Amino acid sequence: xxxxxxxxxxxxxxxxxxxxxxxxxxxxxxxxxxxxxxxxxxxxxxxxxxxxxxxxxxxxxxxxxxxxxxxxxxxxxxxxxxxxxxxxxxxxxxxxxxxxxxxxxxxxxxxxxxxxxxxxxxxxxxxxxxxxxxxxxxxxxxxxxxxxxxxxxxxxxxxxxxxxxxxxxxxxxxxxxxxxxxxxxxxxxxxxxxxxxxxxxxxxxxxxxxxxxxxxxxxxxxxxxxxxxxxxxxxxxxxxxxxxxxxxxxxxxxxxxxxxxxxxxxxxxxxxxxxxxxxxxxxxxxxxxxxxxxxxxxxxxxxxxxxxxxxxxxxxxxxxxxxxxxxxxxxxxxxxxxxxxxxxxxxxxxxxxxxxxxxxxxxxxxxxxxxxxxxxxxxxxxxxxxxxx
Length: 389
Known about the structure:
Elements: E1 10-14, H1 15-32, E2 35-39, H2 49-52, E3 58-61, H3 64-73, E4 77-81, H4 87-96, E5 99-102, H5 105-116, E6 129-133, H6 160-166, H7 169-173, E7 177-179, H8 188-202, E8 211-213, H9 227-241, E9 244-247, H10 251-254, E10 258-266, E11 269-270, E12 273-278, H11 282-285, H12 288-291, E13 302-303, E14 309-314, E15 323-329, E16 338-342, E17 362-366, E18 372-376, H13 380-384
Parallel strand pairs: 1-17, 2-3, 2-9, 3-4, 4-5, 5-6, 6-7, 7-8, 8-9, 12-14
Antiparallel strand pairs: 1-10, 10-12, 10-16, 11-12, 13-15, 14-15, 17-18
């Protein structure tokens, strides 16, 4: 791939690798009968939705705009979950979503009649399927509490104590399914532990449900992922509770299927620290680098001190913490050198921003035949339009 010919910064999605991931998910659906949905919060490059829709069952959304995008651009199964919904949004969601998942009994009680009557306003004439997100109070995560919905005091999901206090038999009767999401970039052993907790907390309720949604955070397409264990747990849930099973992977759909290409702008020094200022920003273009935090891989680079010369890479914004990390290289960097970050298709285009007036990276696709196609280029107007009229 000729990185030198691309304008920087830019995101590049690898169509071949994306399809490799999707084939794994397609096989999972075929072998188990589960439904796999693209979590759009991780990957929303809708120009590829028609292709993605040939492999998996549909999309899941975190609000009205993602739900509209999934319906308009893929047009298959369309689910939504949000911690709370605006009334105006709910009136639209019942028209375009097949499943609506509520976070609390209050929200469910507020909108249950609207959902119940939705068949009258839906094109397919069927009522929307309604679920509740449950909190199994079981955490399998370490080191990144910001992504742990099981953390004490979490606003996400209904605990069994809350369920018993507020969910009357008449409310339960209208429910079709339960949803949980407790994982983040994890293997199926974490899912197994979580499902045991779900069975302990909600196992008496599940036989009365039509479906169980395992949420996201499943790194299914990672090379060392134990997919046989996942298949076993899907089948066990189907057989034990007689429910349809849904999964909502985001990262797994586009894992290792994208790059961020950037150029070196300057090479200052501060004491013994060699610095490289890039034309991409961690704060603007890869916010998870700071939020999680983590150091994304760079092709041809190593950990600090492993190669000949080490640099601290940072962005051009005014934020002192706009730092990607410390990396080593085989030779000193030069102004204008291109660096290529890996695994940049996920949680990048969906979360980037224009802080400091930073330009958004252009978006490209490298097709299976090797041709590179520009999907979108951003400019000053994209920055300005967000700030006024």
